[in-house]
Amino acid sequence: MMYEKIVTITAKHGIHTRPAALLVKKAKSFECNIIVECDGKQASAKSLFKLQTLGLYQGVSVKVIAEGEHAEQAVEEVSELLITLS
Amino acid sequence: MSITGIVVSSGIAFGHALHLNLHHEKIDYRVINTAQIPIEIQKLKKAFELQKHHLHQVLIKLEPKTSHFELIEADILLLEDEELLSQIEDAISTLQIRAAAAIERIFAHQASELEQLEDPYLANRAQDMLCLSHRLIARLNGAQHLDVSQLKQDTIIFAHDLTPAEFAMLPLDYINGLVLNTGGITSHTAILARSAGIPALLSCEYEQANIENGAQVVLNAIDGELVVEPSDENRVKLTQLMQHDVERKQQLLTLKDLPTETLDGHSVSLLANVGSLNEISHLADVGAEGIGLFRTEFMLMNTSTLPDEKTQYHFYCDALHLMEGKTFTIRTLDVGADKELPCLTPLIEDNPALGIRGIRYSLANPELFNTQVKAILRAANHGAIRLMFPMINQVEELEALFGFIEECKLELIEEEKGFGELSYGIVVETPAAVLNLSSMLPLLDFISIGTNDLTQYTMAADRTNPSLTKTYPSLSPAVLQLIKTAIDHARENNIKVSLCGELASDPKVAPLLVGMGIDELSVNLSSLLEVKSGLRDISYQTCLTLAKHALKIKRIEELYLYINGFK
């Protein structure tokens, strides 16, 4: 079963290195695949390398997609982090 | 302008400054053949592992949750990033390029992608990517931030720090002196510099002087001073000092073939601490009577793969051949703590100095240890070898070791390979080893006191931390008491006591150690003649008096003044 959720980035400097690292750590705590999609580009939420290139600025909306074990919880927690990170 | 530092290897050196951490790596972009591909991928993974390990080490020293800490954590996440690694691996195999070229390509691509991001803050991360890529490429080149082609004659090296592995890769013929930001008298690089006779100043804050590459500098590693662009007057003075130093060294050479004995004829074995065949070939230059410590880990420093049994066997045979029947003491692999080897996967530990090091590492890696023990046993068929084990605390460890050696012998018998019997000893380098000696001595032929680690573990003071090494020197009441206890135990069991730490290399301290009852001193090649001179100028009676008084002194400073003021 696939889950997805759309959220808007609020962090002033966007999801730069440090918040992105926190996001990756969170994503890695889940077994399932988690994808972050922004402006037509996709990246694994577990890869800081790919995530960096998405350009997660303040104000852009992103879609979090997960499939597999605990996918729903993963989408919830990753989305939550995306909107609370600063 | 002059800058000070700690002298770890004495002498005067004139030369041109060269900074090592400039990241000027040249990258080889040529196409490789397909057979090379897996080798390059292997190297790539190793570089990632090494860098990751390095970053973990840095993290230990930082406050968690600070931005510095989290940025390093982010770098670690990148190094663990499968996507990143697989992109680089793909570049190596599909484009048939070297690991360094592939790293450069993938990171440069990533950086340009980041640069295109509209948010300037996010776009700035491109610089971080390039920085990480430089570090990784440096790791690939053996973590040596050095373009050797830049090296000219008469160079004085400046670096933040230098690992033993990096030092081992320097072309020493071109290097007149070494200046580091970090380190102290017993850091391993200091020991290596001393062995190589290269004047070195450590814990030196040279950045304040903004020394440019190529600038004329004089390293006065007698007074612990660095002089940049010296005045003519100063230059003359330093040249005289250098000549005086050179003359003293020549004068010492006349002692080379004389016996090591006190004025009243008490003789002491004066052996050398060495780590390479090259150093063994220089034993005769200083009249060393043998080797009291052969550091086998240094033979592994410049190689990315572990030498097999046959290679090691030939190596020890070559060493025996050069020794010409003199005392030859091999210490088994002593890795861990500040000694990282490119051919071994580094361990990530919170406290490496208290972790899997010395014999603990060997016993935890039986294949590695089996290869070394079998090679040494086979070499012993061609000449006498004394074998000693580092970081032994307990008799059980010793029993486990002897069981291990018996199994190695059985394997050799099965393989129909000849071997010889060894003499066995331990490096006494923890307080526990001293306290447990009575149970271990019946199993041993000799002991060798390693004062550097004994000091570190007695004082709980990191030997690589320069702000501690001054406060907690080896020449201190607690360490002397432990040495005395070890000697007393050994005496009761009629066991020979050697001392192989830096303490023995001090010509003022050597007579004290002899007075305390040490039978053998093992010192650096560059200190050997000074120590011999110190012992030949004193009587054994005086050594005994020195020891009797020194052991009663309770204060470090008083002890220092007593030993250094003693005529």
From TrEMBL, chain B:
Domain Phosphotransferase system enzyme I N-terminal: 4-125
Keyword Cytoplasm: yes
UniProt-annotated location(s): Cytoplasm
GO MF annotation, one: phosphoenolpyruvate-protein phosphotransferase activity
Keyword hit for Transferase: yes
Domain of life: Bacteria
SUPFAM superfamilies xrefs: Enzyme I of the PEP:sugar phosphotransferase system HPr-binding (sub)domain, Phosphoenolpyruvate/pyruvate domain, Phosphohistidine domain
EC number from the UniProt entry: 2.7.3.9
Keywords: Cytoplasm, Kinase, Magnesium, Metal-binding, Phosphotransferase system, Sugar transport, Transferase, Transport
Class of the enzyme per the UniProt entry, highest EC level: transferase
Reaction equation(s) it catalyzes: L-histidyl-[protein] + phosphoenolpyruvate = N(pros)-phospho-L-histidyl-[protein] + pyruvate
Pfam families given in the database record: PEP-utilisers_N (PF05524), PEP-utilizers (PF00391), PEP-utilizers_C (PF02896)
Main location group: cytoplasm
Every PEP-utilising enzyme mobile domain range: 152-223
Function description: General (non sugar-specific) component of the phosphoenolpyruvate-dependent sugar phosphotransferase system (sugar PTS). This major carbohydrate active-transport system catalyzes the phosphorylation of incoming sugar substrates concomitantly with their translocation across the cell membrane. Enzyme I transfers the phosphoryl group from phosphoenolpyruvate (PEP) to the phosphoryl carrier protein (HPr).
Family affiliation: Belongs to the PEP-utilizing enzyme family.
NCBIfam families given in the database record: PTS_I_fam
Name of the molecule in the record: Phosphoenolpyruvate-protein phosphotransferase
Record organism: Shewanella schlegeliana
